[in-house]
Design a protein that fits this description.
The complex is a heterodimer of chains A (about 100) and B (about 250).
Chain A lengths: L3 H22 L6 H24 L8 H15 L4 H19 L1
Helix pairs in contact in A: 3-4
Chain B lengths: L16 H15 L1 H20 L5 H10 L2 H13 L2 H11 L2 H10 L6 H7 L5 H6 L1 E3 L2 E2 L1 H25 L3 H6 L5 H14 L3 H17 L5 H8 L1 H8 L13
Antiparallel strand pairs in B: 1-2
Helix pairs in contact in B: 1-9, 2-4, 2-9, 3-9, 4-5, 11-12, 12-13, 12-14
Classes of the chains: A mainly alpha (about 100), B mainly alpha (about 250).
Chain lengths: ~100, ~250
């Protein structure tokens, strides 16, 4: 029961956060300035997620083998590889590096 | 597929809105397969970690099915072990605070009444938000929902497999599973940045802000702080070089 309470609290809050736009703004149109901001939100959030995911709190989770794998995945994608193949290239690179160095 | 603004020609069947939505939904599902595979790997890591933490099988599996939020679920799992339940819940909610911004951005593209829109917004996920972005702050809701389906399936089945086979954290690390999500976010970011110079500059600024804030605040707050880059990018949009894509 002690585990279910925080699990339910997080679940319900996630539903509420996702619904917050329609519930708060309703059918009103966003002003043009807000539309400009929302147009840039996806790339900004993605860039932030990459940094936060790689660095962790106070940059203590930074791992160069992981960074190399992520860069390889990005390069593979730039070379027109499909998304899944690009990610697998990155994972394989990191796995091989760790196998060789550990 | 485009429709003739003057109406259908004789003998030509005008595609209905439902047809467009079905096509967009299927298109979104195809676009969601890659992120879904990445989500499966992450779900596997989550299931394994929950198993190691002694959460049993039912609770983490139901949590994944209902919540479908990897960042919040990982945050709750790690902080609950380290501290009190209230602090753990607050941390998990804060890391999901970005959904407020995403939900407001998405709102204009949703359809129906307030509650129907709120229900559609439940399909929000980081990758789906990007897949559904049509440029200029407009989103395709059917594509959003379609892209979320394989990710939800990947997340839930990954959690189940992780709980059942419970691979050790060391094995997941050795196999490079930690590359999955940042790599997947990078690929989505590259696709977004190709749309316009402005998006690229805003993304670089967002990454810099998040990187700087990581020294002072929690990762969830650093991510929220990074969204200031979208505001700065929109304010200074006129002074930036001309766009090369749809996002103008």
């Amino acid at each position: 029961m002690t585990l279910w309470l925080p699990v339910l609290a997080v679940t319900i809050s996630t539903w509420a956060l996702k619904a917050s736009g329609p519930l708060a703004v309703g059918g009103r149109q966003l002003p043009a300035a807000a539309m400009k901001v929302s147009a840039l939100m996806a790339p900004v959030l993605l860039a932030g997620l990459i940094v936060v995911d790689l660095g962790g709190a106070d940059w203590k989770d930074l791992n160069w083998q992981q960074v190399v794998g992520v860069v390889v995945a990005g390069l593979a994608r730039t070379a027109k590889a499909p998304m899944l193949l690009a990610i697998l290239c990155g994972i394989a690179t990191t796995a091989v590096l760790r196998l060789l160095l550990n | 597929m485009t429709s003739d603004p003057n109406g259908p020609a004789k003998g030509q069947i005008q595609p209905r809105t439902d047809d467009f939505r079905r096509i967009a939904f299927a298109d979104g599902m195809r676009a969601g397969i890659g992120p879904g595979a990445a989500t499966f790997v992450l779900g596997l890591a989550y299931g394994a970690a929950a198993s190691i933490a002694g959460w049993g099988v039912v609770t983490p599996l139901v949590f994944s099915m209902l919540s479908f939020s990897s960042s919040a679920q990982f945050t709750l799992l790690t902080t609950l072990s380290a501290g009190g339940a209230v602090a753990a819940v607050i941390a998990a909610v804060l890391i999901n605070a970005r959904y407020v911004i995403m939900s407001v951005a998405l709102n204009d593209s949703l359809y129906g009444g307030r509650w129907r829109r709120a229900l559609q917004a439940q399909a929000l996920a980081d990758a789906s938000f990007v897949v559904a972005h049509r440029g200029g702050g407009r989103f395709d809701v059917a594509r959003l929902i379609g892209a979320t389906v394989p990710q939800w399936l990947g997340w839930v089945t990954g959690t189940a497999v992780g709980l059942l086979i419970a691979p050790s954290a060391q094995l997941m690390h050795a196999l490079g599973a930690d590359v999955t999500f940042p790599a997947f976010f990078l690929i989505l970011a590259l696709d977004e940045m190709r749309k316009s110079r402005r998006a690229m500059l805003a993304a670089l600024l967002g990454a810099s802000i998040a990187g700087g804030l990581l020294f002072f605040v929690s990762p969830g707050d650093a991510l929220l702080g990074a969204t200031a880059a979208a505001v700065i990018g929109a304010i200074h949009g006129r002074t930036l070089p001309p766009t090369v894509g749809a996002d103008s």
